[in-house]
Amino acid sequence: MVNLQNAWQKIGYDCHIHLREHVNPPLKPAPHQLKPVLDEAKRRGIIPHIREHAPLPQILSIGPNEDFLFCMRHDEIESFLKLFQIEGVPFGLEVDYVAGYENQIYDNVQIFLNKAKEMGVKITSLAGSPHLLPGKLQEFDWDKKGLDLVIWEFSDATFLEYIKQRGAKQILDDYFDGIEGIIRMGIFQVINHLDVIRKMDHRTSQSSSPFFGDLENYYLSRCRRIIELAGDKNMVLEINTGGINHKWGQPFIQQEILNYCAEVGVGIQVGSDAHRPGEIGQYFDVAYQMLLQAGIEEIVVFEELKPVRRSIV
Predict the structure, then answer these.
(1) For residue 293, how far is the Cα from the chain centroid?
(2) What CA–CA distance (Å, rounded) separates 166 from 196?
(3) Mean predicted lDDT score pLDDT of the chain
């Protein structure tokens, strides 16, 4: 059994680290902090790859902090990049996919990349995520400007109401259709936390999900399709160990799904989804055992949007 420190050494990279915590209004997001992350990663012997939430298209940048609760504001781009310019390290982005806004998302990304190039800051990768799904739920006490979009993971109560209103099957279709949209856009290298739709889910004493128990075969078939489509585009998936901190209680990629990635030759990377320096490399011992069980002997990291394979054995 590999302990946590050995797993840090074997895996070497944490490919999904954020520079601040999420806050709810009336609190305001703290400035991004890079140096504490670099210092803690160095102490743990991990190479940190930052993957910060990119700004949403302007039309979606709503709420008291103009961030839909979790994304970077547009007026923070330059100060964010300045941190990397000073430290001489690359950055990465977690970009939210919202169906119907593909052109705006593409333009947003290009603005960010052009600014980075102008400032001489290099990028690791672009990773896609679907945190916003269709729905009319009012999960906040502020005006959503008529946008029929839901942060389904805002709270347990939000997710329960969302399931009740929209139905489990439709939610899965919306979610997986969003990931297929990420793949179709052709600008991303990584699909984040494939199982994150299970964040509020759990297994009962009968090992059944109270939300998706009757849909497990359908769920796995959609996951397999995503993996095959990602493979066709040379994209990679991640083991997101942050899932262990939530009700799901395991990384956001199940062993069965990881095994299928190995079977069809889709690359894998490992990320903690840390929002605090102390979470860097969290549960990498679990991820390492999963990789070995799947027969995976290398991970994929990115340098300037190009894949680099690294042995973990």
Answers:
(1) 23
(2) 18
(3) 96
Given a contact cutoff of 8 angstroms between Cβ atoms, the answer to whether 23 and 68 are in contact is no
Domains observed in the chain:
4-131+168-311 (3.20.20.140)
Task: State the distance between the two ends of the chain, measured CA to CA, in whole angstroms.
Answer: 13
Q: Which is nearest to 238 in space by CA: 185, 201, 188?
A: 188
Residue pLDDT, tens place only, 72-128: 999 999 999 999 999 999 999 999 999 999 999 999 999 999 999 999 999 999 999
Cα–Cα–Cα angle for 76, 94, 40, rounded to 5 degrees: 80
- Give the pLDDT mean for 201-223: 91
Rounded CA gap, 53 and 70, in Å? 7
User: How far apart, in Å, are the Cα atoms of 39 and each of 28, 35, 90?
Assistant: 25, 6, 15
Mapped onto helix, strand or coil, the DSSP state of residue 13 is strand
Reference 36, options 52, 53, 12, 20; nearest CA is: 20
**Cα 90 from chain centroid (whole Å):** 18
